[in-house]
Amino acid sequence: MQRRTSFSFKRTGRVLAAGLALLAAGASHAAEEKFVYLTNWFAQAEHGGFYQAVATGLYKKHGLDVTIKMGGPQVNGVQLLAAGQADCIMGSSQLQMTQARSNGVPIVTVAALFQKDPQALIGHEDVHGFPDMKGKTILIASSARQGFWPWLQTKYGFTDAQTRPYTFNIQPFLADKSVVQQGYITSETYALHKAGAKANAFLMADAGYPSYATTVSCMDSTVAKRHKAVQAFVQASIEGWKSYLANPAPANALIKKDNPQMTDDQLAFSVAKLKEYGLVTGGDAAKNGIGTMTEARVKEGYDFLVANKLIDPAKVKPEQTVDFAFTKGVKVLP
Predict the structure, then answer these.
(1) How far is the CA of 27 from the CAs of 32, 152, 255, in angstroms?
(2) C-alpha span between 294 and 297 (Å, rounded)
(3) Which of 25, 162, 174, 310 has CA atoms 20 to 30 A from the CA of 8?
(4) How far is CA 149 from CA 103, 237, 252, 307, 308, in A?
(5) Which run of H or of E encompasses 273?
(6) CA-CA distance, 121 to 138, in Å (whole number)?
(7) DSSP state of 112
(8) Is the four-CA dihedral 108, 114, 117, 119 of positive or negative sign?
(9) What H or E segment, with its residue span, contains residue 257?
């Protein structure tokens, strides 16, 4: 009987311990706050740090259950954010987010994971810099007229007469040796390389284009009501980007799952370009940490938008467009 009683107590203890473990696991799961982040395009290496934070458990470590939703050509991220379909979105550029604020959307940027906008102009092998493009036909998307195109016009004297629509198809470029086209330094350059084109790409950021890119931008109400969750998302995302650049394999598996068209070769190429051009780790990130922004840089971008009548200064001030508090306490050096 004594043995039986002893066994019974042991068994009861095991059951109790198992029950407590399940309760603890349940409490831990319940403690993970749901958070939705909407990207600006189909899953790709340019989103790698966010996917890495999912794949390696960084968001969970910071108490979040994060869902990454893919954007795309027919997806209006700002509208979906305003409609409550996401907690924060990826702005393609900080200038874009400032324009949204000027247009009446109470949106604020809390981090910028790219110190440099990845937008480039790509010419054939006879083009050795932006000055060589003057007078050539330049293919640009309609959205460029609200962003980098006015900057190029001011800096290099380009004219609207030399533009034609860019349809995110490299065939017109391949068919005409006199054409220049826009493209991401990490993406279109790969497609042209695979097509055998001898092309030279020039990053606008390296010529002074002031915009940050790949932002974490949220509604004012979200920042106010869910301050801790936004802070946790920023922290984990920054850690995710450092991890991704060191070992992109975990995120790449998720990227390919979300976007089956993505290849290992394309991902490797894009990661190499992210590193080569210091898109994440260059600029002020080298000393202040990944994701950082500065008041001077934000003001430079704001002044550019005002000078080109792309925003109304009566409707938005530079200090309304960015909240620096979320990156000041996070110093993850490259």
Answers:
(1) 9, 54, 30
(2) 5
(3) 25
(4) 20, 30, 32, 13, 10
(5) helix 264-276
(6) 8
(7) E
(8) negative
(9) helix 249-258
Provide the token pair at 212. 């940050």
The rounded distance, in Å, linking the Cα atoms of 48 and 39 is 11
d(C-alpha 236, C-alpha 229), whole Å: 11
Per-residue confidence (pLDDT) for residue 30, from 0 to 100: 54
**Residue written as tokens 């932002």?**
215
Beta bridge partners of 219: 107
pLDDT at residue 73, rounded to an integer: 87
Sign of CA pseudo-dihedral 290, 233, 204, 156: negative
What is d(CA 115, CA 284) in angstroms, rounded to the nearest whole number? 7
pLDDT of residue 26: 46
Classified as helix, coil or strand, 88 is: strand
Q: Cα–Cα distance between 33 and 59 in angstroms, integer?
A: 10
What distances in angstroms separate CA 156 from CA 125, 131, 206, 250, 282, one per listed residue? 20, 6, 14, 42, 25
Contact present, 99 and 146 (Cβ < 8 Å): yes
Please check whether residue 174 is in contact with residue 197, taking contact to mean a CB–CB distance below 8 angstroms. yes
Residue 207 tokens read as 């010529």
Distance CA 237, CA 332 (A): 11
Q: Which tokens belong to 246?
A: 């060191």
Q: What is the mean pLDDT of each run of 10 residues along the chain (334 residues)?
A: 35 43 45 95 98 98 98 93 97 96 97 98 97 96 94 96 94 96 96 94 97 98 97 98 98 98 97 98 95 96 97 96 94 90
Burial zone of 91 (CB within 10 Å; 0-12 exposed, 13-18 middle, 19+ buried): buried
User: CA torsion, points 96, 87, 299, 49, in degrees to nearest 10?
Assistant: -90
